[in-house]
Specification:
Layout: H1 20-32, E1 50-52, E2 55-57, E3 78-80, E4 88-89, E5 102-104, E6 112-113, E7 126-128, E8 136-137, E9 150-152, E10 160-161, E11 174-176, H2 185-192, E12 200-202, E13 210-212, E14 225-227, E15 235-238, E16 248-250, E17 261-264, E18 275-277, H3 285-294, E19 301-303, H4 311-319, E20 326-328, E21 336-337, E22 350-352, E23 360-361, E24 374-376, E25 397-399, E26 421-423, E27 445-447, E28 470-472, E29 480-481, E30 494-496, E31 504-505, E32 518-520, H5 533-536, E33 544-546, E34 573-575, E35 579-581, E36 584-586, E37 600-602, E38 624-626, E39 648-650, H6 661-665, E40 672-674, H7 685-688, E41 696-698, E42 704-705, H8 711-719, E43 724-726, E44 733-735, H9 756-780, H10 782-805, E45 810-815, H11 821-835, E46 840-841, H12 843-846, H13 853-862, E47 864-871, H14 873-877, H15 879-895, E48 900-904, H16 910-913, H17 917-925, E49 928-930, H18 938-950
Parallel strand pairs: 2-3, 3-5, 4-6, 5-7, 7-9, 8-10, 9-11, 11-12, 12-14, 13-15, 14-16, 15-17, 16-18, 18-19, 19-20, 20-22, 21-23, 22-24, 24-25, 25-26, 26-27, 27-28, 28-30, 29-31, 30-32, 32-33, 33-34, 34-37, 37-38, 38-39, 39-40, 40-41, 41-43, 42-44, 45-46, 45-47, 47-48, 48-49
Antiparallel strand pairs: 1-2, 35-36
Amino acid sequence: MILKMGHEVKENKTMPKGRAKYFKLSIMFLLLNIDNVVVPVRGFSLRSCRISYSTAICAKSRPSLKAVPKDIPPTVTGLDLSLNKITKIQGSDFKNLPLLTQLEIDRNMISQIDTGAFANLISLKNLNLNNNKLHELRADLFDGLGNLTELRIRSNGIKVVASTSFKSLTSLKLLDISFNRLNHLTNVHAIIQHLPNLKDLSIYGNGFTTFNSWELTNSSLGLTSLDVSQNPFGVFNITTDIFPDLTRFNIGGFHSKQHMKWEVRNTTFPSRVSTLDISGLELAFGHMKTFLESVNSSLISMRMNSMKYNLTALINVSCTIPTMSTLQLRRNKLHFIRSNLFKLCINVTELDLAESRIKNIHDEAFASMQGLKILTLSRNALHSVPAATKYIPTLEELDLSKNNITTLGCQDFANMTKLKHLRLFNNFISALNDCVFKDLIQLQVLKLQGNHICKFGGAFKKPNLPNLTQLRLNGNGLTTIQSEAFNGLQSLQMLSLHENKIKNLEDGCFIGLTDLTDLQLQSNNINQSVIRQEVFNHLTNLRRLDLRTNHIRYNYSSAMPHPPFSKLSHLQILAIPGQHRRGKSLLPSNLLQGLTNLLVFNTRNTQLLSLSKDMFNHTPQLQILDISSNDIVDLSPELFFPIQNLKSLYISRISLRSLDFLKDAGLTKLEFIQARKNAFSVLSEDEMDPLKALVYLDLQGNSFTCDCDNAWFINWTENSNKTQVFDAYNFECNYPPDLKGMKLLDFDIRFCKVSTDFICFVSTTCMVLLFMVVSFTYHFLRWQLTYAYYYFLALLFNSKNQNRQAANLYDAFISYNTHDEPWVIQELLPKLEGEQGWRLCLHHRDFEPGKPIIENITDAIYASRKTICVISRRYLESEWCSREIQVASFRLFDERKDVLILVFLEEIPTYEMSPHHRMRKLLKRQTYLSWPEGREHTEVFWEKLRKALRAEEEGLYEDRLLLTVMD
């Protein structure tokens, strides 16, 4: 069995035949509860679309598409562009999609299609252009669509059709061109004359007032289905047999003031029709009778919905047709079914009377229908089960849903020994008697959902329903499930009890349900202190158990002495709520003990704080795990070691700060990750590289950092042909602040890249030159260099001692760029020298004339207790400022004293600091100050600076006070 998630889940070989369909429906139902599921497929990240099952889905894009996207991969077989604002199809829009078999462009605003726009779609089978604005179909519009089999072009306002518009559609079998403005049958002739294989034609709602067969006589019509309903026909004239193969014919009415004139002289026209729909048709009874008599030998199914006139007479005429077995009479105002209404319908096996305002039915209304198998009475006004149904011994399906039935009596279903399907949902039934289903020995499906049932007593305790496989009791008012409540349902496979008010499940309440595979208990008030083993241990064949949205509490936060599901070795799907403790949740570490075949585990939205690393030790087959919408802030790789078969992981909205756990989790088979709205901002290659099978990644709603840390992720997202990153082109930056709101994939990562070829060239060249210089020097200047080395060491030692003797001449040396001199003179000097009394060294005032600049800088820095660097963008670009900060940093690391203070006059983003690696290193370990914008809070700034100047010259690696001044 294939899960609709892009991967296979093997069905247990021990599952009895007949249960597979219920299990398949159950697993699909559970997956539909996982929000916004997108099915994984090998594909690409697209700007406006997503890839699912080899189909590019661009439907209802935000913002709405105004043109066909250009980035659709050529490997897709389906393309859905519906519900957008596309106005034009250009000639190049689909030229690179040769494998496309299905194209949906309905509900747009298309008014123009270029010639040859479909020419390259050689594989296209289905094309949907419904609900657009194509008022004219030009010649050669559909060129290239020789393999097209289905074309829908309904509701476009088409008025003009060129004679050669459809000449290329030689394989077309279905054409729906309804609700347009063709008005004349000649336009239909221009269409179908080129369609030799057309079988199904719908032209309803086109304003045709006449239907004359001679207007279509030159056409080769092999139609099997024709729908011409909702047209204001005044005349319907057929003189020749133009529809020899027609089996389905719909000529439903268009409400007008005059009846249609029926002139069918060729009686063979409808003689092969097996399904006839004349709903709402206003035709004189004489013509109608003639028409019905002409289909006397072939008619099987008759639809007469919403009829205004002569319904009784039409029923009598229709029922005289010996082959007719299905009669549909919906939306008729019958109110009361008399005893003689269906007296001639002795051959009818299926009768549909839904939505007919029926309040009463005569006891013998169906007495003549001794072969009736299916009776539909839904959406009427019945207050009880009509006694007339008891006199239909052959009845197999009875639909009484959506009526006003309040009670069920012991005789309501008496003698219905062949009934297999009984629908009683959405009534007002409050209780069930023990004897109500006593004769329904063949019943397989019983639907009682949406009633007011508070108790059902012993209705299911006795073996009155030995063949019942499906029981729906959801949406009622049940509060307690008593012991052995379903003991008589030995064949039951699906039981739905969700959306009730159940508070308690008594021990042994599911005794007897040995064949049950699907149990739904979600959305109740189950609040017992523990889900006990005694509740579920009899359900040995259970495949699906849903307990979500309850108030279950566990007495054990670590391990339970008697795990509640330990006997359910065949369970494959489990959805549970967590243990609530002061608003938060825990799960016992051995809660899943015994579930050796579990495939799907869902504990979404249960306020979980954490998961024990031993949680999945007993579930080695687990393939789908959903722990979204919890309070888990961290996941351990050890949690996933026992579940190496995991294929889908849902971890949205759990406050994760990173995906580091994926590096060591060993999830080599993981194909699908949904991690929306978490707290991580950077994804690295180390996190994604171990996921060899990953084909789909959903990271919507996360706040990404736009810097070089994400360069790999950006490049991988744009270029990976294995993993699709859903909605990647809408990811936004949250940091740094000046890039907030920018699209992540718009961030330029070129400056983050290093050219390997260039580095290799430069490195090789330098090595060759260095080797040549070293060889030359060693050969010719060996002894001179030795002497120079020792002489330099002596000078350096002497210079350092002299500099240190001149220490403390100044309190601080000010390193700044000349463009920032006004701030230094007007702000810094008056404050530090004038008010605080510090002795400062400035190059324009205190440097010794005639002395080399670099020597002046060195002496000034070593003669000062501190060095204050006034940093701005100009400062970073200045060569001399760079020398000054180099000397200061040399002293910093040489003397290992905190002698450096950094003052930023303006905010400089991290990426602009990238070329100044020395500055970036200093910022990571050195105190710094920021001059406040707008001159606000300057008092705090000066106080921080004063403290920095007074600070002891402590070791470099001791803790420091953070001196950053914030607005």
